[in-house]
Amino acid sequence: MASTAAGKQRIPKVAKVKNKAPAEVQITAEQLLREAKERELELLPPPPKQKITDEEELNDYKLRKRKTFEDNIRKNRTVISNWIKYAQWEESLKEIQRARSIYERALDVDHRNVTLWLKYAEMEMKSRQINHARNIWDRAVTILPRVNQFWYKYTYMEEMLGNVAGARQVFERWMEWQPEEQAWHSFINFELRYKEVDRVRAIYERFVMVHPEVKNWIKYARLEERHGCIAHSRKVYERAVEFFGEEHMDEILFVAFAKFEENQKEFERVRVIYRYALDRIPKQQAQELFKAYTVFEKKFGDRRGIENVIVNKRRFQYEEEVKANPHNYDAWFDYLRLVESDADADTVREIYERAIANVPPTQEKRHWKRYIYLWINYALYEELEAKDPERTRQVYQAALDLIPHKKFTFGKIWLLYAQFEIRQKNITMARKILGTSIGKCPKAKLFKGYIDLELQLREFDRCRKLYEKYLEFSPENCTTWIKFAELETILGDYERVRAIYELAIGQPRLDMPEVLWKSSIDFEIEQEEYEKTRTLYRRLLERTQHVKVWISFAQFELSIESADRLSKCRKIYEDANKALRNCEEKEERLMLLESWRGFETDFGTESSQERVRKLMPEKIKKRRKLQAEDGSDAGWEEYYDYIFPEDAANQPNLKLLAMAKLWKKQQETTTNQQETNSEGETEKQEL
Question: What is the pLDDT of residue 387?
């Protein structure tokens, strides 16, 4: 039977979709929801209103309602909202005892629920059950003392009932738990409403110990000030300053203290407060303090006071800069310049000592160039401002001991030290200093300074010895040779001058030999030793064939008053032209010929002038190929070249150039004749 029944079961046929194309009207989920809302398909009709007409029906309603609430509570005891609804329903029926019982049952379930306690106490207060309400609040603050809302409502209720002593007692119980600041302020405001200033003062004493913050001390002091207790207010500020000490100083406290004293017209006290704070509070934390000080000085201070404020501000800025980078020597210079203008000597010395303690980390001269000026300025300050020669001497000596002279030195500081000793009329010490400097680290600047010193003292023998040492140290320095020779010239020892020049000329390496030769020649010219001058010129021309030397030689011969000066000068020009014939620099040869031509124009005859004119070159334009740095072709450039008639190799070029000029001239003549003939024929035709 079972198999037969199973066999008889029919498998449902799946309907075949013949048209799989999308419908013309598409229905969206949004449309479905909107239609359901419009038709209100899910809304249930409200229950019918019941009208209770007799007590039996009312009791029946209460029974059913209580059963519903009890069932809800039985299902989930921890849902406090069900308890509160139940109690509020009983309260609405004036069943206070039943509501009280429900609240007590709920508190057994969750005695830490704040809302439950609040609703319970509010119910008792609405029912004017004051003692019950007090009992509830007392239980609440005992069980949950950290819930401030209970304390606020408890004290408010007692104050509204006029029970000031009871409210004060509640506040005192609250303060034993050391609550937040607002609770203390509520207690203080409560006492102020009843003019209990002494009690307020006692509360503040406890308050600032529990919450030791600057703003609370300031509020305490301002309270005293508002009630006219100026001495008490000042004492509070002083206690606050002492309480925080120097480790936890706050600019807000000092600004408030200073403004209090300003209101009392105690301006000197204000200045002392500001200066005390500015000297101890870190600079980055004293911006507002400084602004307040500046405003105060502008209002009540004199010009000196305002300048002091500005100077202090700049000092703070420089302190920050040098703390951020102790090796910022420019900041130290600015700081020291400021301090020197407005500070005592001990303060300036302290800043200088701090500055010079920042020695450059490496022994490279470029890092020491700015640093060494700190020592120089320090020494100058001690000498010129402090008028302390002994300290000045110590500063110079310390600076010289610090510099690594084996690697580098500073000639300026040696010279300044020596000049200082001269001003102290200690010539021996000055010579010792400069001698030590030359022995430790010889420099051109030190030799020059030492020589200048001896020249001013008219110690010429010492100058000679110093020049000899200087030339041993730097024999290639032509300026030194010339200065040595000039010294001997002034002293009138001409043989020594010539010997010095001979030694100088004989040196294998010189930095400016042309200046040395010129000085030697000028010396012989001044002494009118013309033969020796000619000898010097000849010796110089053996070393160099520079065109300026030849021209100078020729002009020298021309300047001598003698009968054959023109012939000698012309002879030098001829020799120079021959010597420069093989010179690659054609511009120099051209310069010589132009100078020669100028000479012949002034002093020569027509034949000599014609001779020089024939020697003048032809200026032609040429092209040459350029190459880039990588060897590639960079194009062509034009340049001017000079072809001298005397050069045998250039004769064909000159002939070709002359023929080209002649041909061009003939072409121009022919063209002019043709134009003239054509103009004549045109005139005849017109006639």
Answer: 82
CA distance linking residue 618 with residue 295, whole number of Å: 86
Lowest mean pLDDT among 184-188, 209-213, 358-362, 441-445: 441-445
Residue among 214, 207, 138, 204 at smallest CA distance from 170: 138
pLDDT at residue number 675: 67
Distance CA 95, CA 90 (A): 5
Q: How confident is the model at residue 48 (pLDDT cuts 50, 70, 90)?
A: confident
Given a cut of 50, whether residue 593 has pLDDT beyond it is yes
CB 329 within 8 A of CB 374: yes
CA dihedral 54, 56, 57, 62 (to 10 degrees): 120
Residue with tokens 């929801």: 33
In this structure, what token pair is assigned to residue 400? 């010289």
pLDDT of residue 432: 81
HEC sequence for 166-209? HHHHHHHHHHCCCCCHHHHHHHHHHHHHCCCHHHHHHHHHHHHH
SS3 string of 305-358? HHHHHHHHHHHHHHHHHHHHCCCCHHHHHHHHHHHHHCCCHHHHHHHHHHHHCC
Q: Is residue 633 classed as helix, strand or coil in its secondary structure?
A: strand
Does the structure show a pLDDT above 70 at 13? no
- The amino acid present at 72, given as its one-letter code, is N
Return left, alpha or beta for 636; rule: phi > 0 is left, psi -120 to 50 is alpha, else beta.
beta
C-alpha dihedral (669, 674, 680, 682), degrees to nearest 10 = -150
Looking at 23-95, list the stretches that DSSP marks H as alpha helix, in order from N- to C-terminal side: 29-39, 55-75, 80-92
- Which SS3 state, helix, strand or coil, does residue 229 take? coil
Question: What does 7-29 look like in DSSP terms, one character per residue?
Answer: HHPPPPPPPP-S--SPPSS---H
State whether the Cα torsion 678-679-683-684 is positive or negative.
negative
Q: Residue 432, Cβ neighbours under 10 Å: how many?
A: 13
Helix (H, G, I), strand (E, B) or coil at 484: helix
List phi, psi (to 5°) of 362: -120, 155
Pairing of strands 618-627, 633-643: antiparallel
pTM: predicted TM-score of the whole model, two decimal places: 0.49
Q: Write the pLDDT tens digit of every residue in 662-684.
A: 777 777 777 766 666 666 566 55
Under 8 Å between Cβ of 190 and 164: no
Determine whether 366 is exposed, middle or buried from the number of CB atoms within 10 Å of its CB (0-12, 13-18, 19+). exposed
C-alpha 86/C-alpha 69 separation (Å) is 6
Task: With H, G, I as helix, E, B as strand and everything else as coil, classify residue 634.
Answer: strand
Instruction: Measure CA 355 to chain center.
Output: 20
Token pair 């600076």 in the structure block, residue? 399
Whether the Cβ atoms of residue 71 and residue 52 lie closer than 8 Å to each other: no
DSSP 347-414: HHHHHHHHHHT---SS--HHHHTTHHHHHHHHHHIIIIIS--HHHHHHHHHHHHHHS-TTT---HHHH
Q: Which helix (H) or strand (E) holds 673?
A: helix 651-686
Task: Write the burial class of residue 429 (CB in 10 Å: 0-12 exposed, 13-18 middle, 19+ buried).
Answer: middle
Integer-rounded Cα Rg, in Å, for the chain is: 57
